[in-house]
Description:
mainly beta; Jelly Rolls; 2 domains; 10-stranded mixed sheet; 2 helices; 20 strands; C-JID domain-containing protein; repeat; C-JID
Amino acid sequence: MLDLSWCPKLEKIQWPAIVVKELNVTECRSLQQITYDTEGRTLSIQHGACMRLCYVQYGFKTKPVREIDVRLINNVGFFSLDSMADVEVMITNCIVWSKVKRPVEILWECGLFSIYFPGQEVPFWFMYKINGPTITLNVSSNHQIRGLNVCVVYTLSDIVNWLQDPIEVKVHNKSEHFVWPYRPRCYGVPEADGYIVWLCYFGLEVLLEKGDEVEVSFEMKVEGQIKDCGAHLLYYEEVKEIKQYCDTLLCC
């Protein structure tokens, strides 16, 4: 184990071409990123209380929406989010043990993209919406699948332990008997009597086939409530069309 904990001036780590079982950078409050040389890696990282850590290569990355190329956001189907650049939301980050109100940002982990913002309803461009935690849909037989966007509108009790992962989503391909569960380690905390909208993009082009039946379900792991949920299958042919539609609405 390599212990670099409690180094207040440490800002970046460029890991050399060696393998170490464990790296401890706990309480390195200026640390912003950890990257690796071609053959270097660590099997485990302790990074609690690294309040500014926003990037661990192969691990996770967070970045404010205002700093992201809008084309990237559109490519994962997060349309019409330009207006969120100046919106702030309370984010609990269980990865680095922080709870801070900050501008809306994108989270990447486990190959998935997530975003949280204050809101009361599933975005208008979602094809499937329902009151409750579960929704079922079918993959088109006419188009090539690119991915799946899921959405949930939820609230949390004000007594929730903020270091817990409060919500889980499961994408169940009922045709192929495959389940992909995900519990994000960062999540939005609603204001009093308010709700949070969570959008999550699954790149499922290799896991979903034409005609498959898919069930998306959300479950609260702590005291809270799911108001609505939604799902939207993203096809290669559709991305440009939805972007043009959103632009038209914003200009009206």
